[in-house]
Specification:
By secondary structure, this protein is mostly helical. It has helices at 8-20, 25-36, 54-57, 75-86. 47% of the residues lie in helices and 0% in strands. The longest helix is centred in the N-terminal third of the chain and has 13 residues, at 8-20. The chain is elongated, with a radius of gyration of 25 Å.
Length: 87
């Protein structure tokens, strides 16, 4: 465990806040630090319909993904529609 220095007045305010929220100053400061440190989240890529198992394909409903693997949110299709409509 490491120690940090903090102004006495600031520590008193932190202590009052932590006390009012039923947590320790250490817990509160730790939660603040964790919130601002970038996490290493795993990025996932959606599988194509051909890669899905037959069992999983049984549960795929009427909403099938767009044919373009890179247009998951339909942005390309929306742009194409708007371009054709207003040009």
């Amino acid at each position: 465990m490491q120690a940090i220095s903090i102004d006495n007045a600031l520590y008193a305010e932190a202590q009052a806040y932590a006390s009012a929220n039923n947590i320790s100053v250490e817990q509160w400061i730790t939660s603040l630090i964790v919130r601002f440190i970038p996490s290493k989240k795993k990025h996932y890529k959606m599988k194509s319909m051909q890669e899905l198992s037959p069992e999983l394909l049984q549960h795929v409903g009427f909403a099938k993904p767009a044919s373009d693997d890179d247009d998951l949110n339909g942005e390309k299709a929306r742009d194409e529609y708007l371009t054709s409509k207003y040009n």
